[in-house]
Design goal:
The structure holds two protein chains of two kinds. By secondary structure, chain A is an alpha+beta fold. Chain A has three helices and nine strands; from the N terminus they run E-E-E-H-E-E-E-E-E-H-E-H. A six-stranded antiparallel beta sheet of chain A has the order 1-2-3-9-8-5. A three-stranded antiparallel beta sheet of chain A has the order 4-6-7. The longest helix of chain A has 11 residues. The mean pLDDT of chain A is 93. Chain B is α+β, with helices and mostly antiparallel strands. Chain B folds into three domains: 135 residues, Gyrase A, domain 2 (2-Layer Sandwich), CATH 3.30.1360; 83 residues, Aminomethyltransferase beta-barrel domains (Alpha-Beta Plaits, 2-Layer Sandwich); 75 residues, Elongation Factor Tu (Ef-tu), domain 3, CATH 2.40.30. Chain B is 20% helix and 34% strand. Chain B has eight helices and 19 strands. Chain B has a six-stranded mixed beta sheet. The chains are: A alpha+beta, B alpha+beta.
Chain lengths: 130, 364
């Protein structure tokens, strides 16, 4: 099973992706992550204005079968939250890198160590798909 | 090495996602849990449940033996009918929940996949002194569940002898039939809260049988949907709502215990538990705060003290919101009682609601 792993993004070990837009970062979950979870039916995201700490849980996404914590690949202030997802969680399944984005952050420091480029993340996914 | 059913290759070829369950490598989903769940509520879904244990109990004292080991009244099961029952230990804890099918000259007993070996040992250990023979059928027979309001229509098309007669089979009825020309034991039983059938037939035919039912419109379903479908009508799952250390009265299964049928294993303990009233009860709840409760999450009372745990919780697909079942002190089990579920170390308020969450739509 091959997953979509856009070349221009950076990826965390906990399957979040990060995209730089100006001096802000957009964060979501990868195609691999949504596929592993299955139909996403519930999510918890921080509020606009909240501060998230690097490496800490900033929310959760849940399918019927499982829940998955969301970990911040970078610390900073949440400047936008994808409120469209409240009534349309399936966007995370259908378009994880587009309409399924989760939060937009103004970073307060460097990204966590161990972030991967697309090639590195592809290998990381491959390893776990056994 | 995980065990595999006769349909393993078929599941993999169809692109199902395989997972470990009770020592078995089983499909958790085909097209997606929600899609499969909805198909069963609205039309018909097909499950490979060959991992469940099947055994025959026969001999001159088959009925007496079963009366001794199960809590339901086996003598009251008419020929051609099936009954839900519990095996209990002398303390009243539940060894397993089972289905007993009364066939001519013998009983078919279906047990949970994860308890196959335990039940086999348990039954043999208590068979001493009874003129009975216990014969395994788990390997020789495959077992499928065809569930949903459209299941009877699918079976009618599959019947080649006496077409249409199976749609007249009563709830929990069991009959020998021929589907696609294969001799099949057909029971109007299931685990989804819908009308439906469970089918027993020669394992050699499993792949052909599966394909033919799918061709008639039954949607392949995995264990994920099986779990969400049983959760909504609050049907127990062994090692979650019931276990060796949980008694039937706590689990709201007192209706399966017939204390007046005569002696059986666990009767004295169960009579005492019933008289005293259970200290904790399985309790359905909805979330008042945001969050999804999951199995094993702690339950605290409003004073912040740990008082119980969640057995199963999930966003219920048909009901469209997160619900759960938990063991809480009896005083907290009344409808409207509030308590906290500890979700990722934070208390989230929940409220006890009526069970079942989804009213089963069995054919009566």
């Amino acid at each position: 099973m091959s997953h979509n792993i856009p070349a221009e993004l950076r990826y965390s070990k906990s399957d979040e992706w990060v995209r730089t837009e100006g001096d802000e970062l957009v964060i979501g979950v990868s195609d691999f992550a949504q596929d592993q979870l299955g139909d996403i039916v519930y999510l918890e995201l921080p509020k606009v204005g909240a501060t998230i700490a690097p490496g800490d849980s900033f929310g959760a996404i849940e399918s019927v079968k499982a829940s998955s914590d969301l970990y911040a690949p970078v610390g900073g202030e949440v400047v936008a939250v994808n409120t469209e997802l409240e009534s349309n969680q399936e966007a995370i399944n259908k378009d994880p890198y587009g309409a399924g984005w989760l939060i937009r952050v103004r970073p307060s420091g460097a990204e966590e160590e161990g972030m991967m480029d697309a090639a590195g993340y592809a290998a990381y996914c491959e390893d776990r798909a056994h | 090495m995980l065990k595999r059913t006769p349909l393993y290759e078929k599941h993999v070829a169809a692109g199902a996602r395989m997972v470990e369950f009770g020592g078995w490598e089983m499909p958790v989903q085909y097209s997606g849990i929600i899609d499969e769940h909805t198909a069963v509520r609205q039309q018909a879904g097909l499950f490979d449940i060959s991992h469940m244990g099947r055994l025959m109990v026969r001999g001159n004292q088959a009925e007496e033996f079963l009366q001794h080991v199960v809590t339901c009244d086996v003598a009251a099961i008419p020929l051609g009918q099936a009954s839900y029952g519990l095996l209990c230990n002398p303390d009243g804890g539940i060894v397993d929940d089972i289905f007993i099918y009364h066939l001519p000259e013998e009983y078919l007993v279906v047990v949970n996949a994860s308890n196959r070996e335990k039940d086999w040992q348990w039954l043999h250990a208590h068979a001493e002194g009874f003129d009975v023979e216990i014969v395994g059928r788990s390997e020789r027979w495959a077992m499928l569940a065809l569930q949903g309001p459209g299941a009877a229509e699918v079976l009618t098309q599959a019947e080649e002898i006496g077409a249409g007669s199976l749609s007249l089979l009563p709830f929990h009825g069991v009959a020998l039939s021929a589907l696609f020309g294969y001799t099949t034991l057909v029971a109007r039983t299931g685990y989804a809260g819908e009308d439906g059938f469970e089918l027993f037939f020669d394992a050699e035919q499993a792949e052909a049988f599966w394909d033919k039912l799918v061709d008639l419109g039954a949607k392949p379903c995995g264990l994920g949907a099986r779990d969400s479908l049983r959760f909504e009508p609050c049907l127990s799952l062994y090692s979650h709502e019931i276990s060796d250390t949980i008694n039937p009265y706590e689990a709201r299964l007192g209706w399966v215990v017939k204390l007046d049928k005569g002696d059986f294993i666990g009767r004295a303990a169960l009579a005492a538990i019933k008289a005293a009233g259970p200290a904790r009860r399985l309790t359905g709840f909805e979330m008042l705060g945001r969050g999804v409760a999951r199995g094993d999450y702690p339950v605290h009372n409003l004073a912040g003290e740990p008082v119980g745990y969640v057995t199963t919780g999930m966003p219920a697909p048909t009901l469209g919101r997160p619900l759960g079942m938990a063991y809480v002190p009896t005083a907290l089990s009344a409808e409207g009682s509030e308590f906290d579920i500890i979700i990722r170390e934070k208390p989230v308020r929940a409220r006890a609601i009526k069970m079942p969450f989804y009213k089963p739509r069995y054919k009566k």
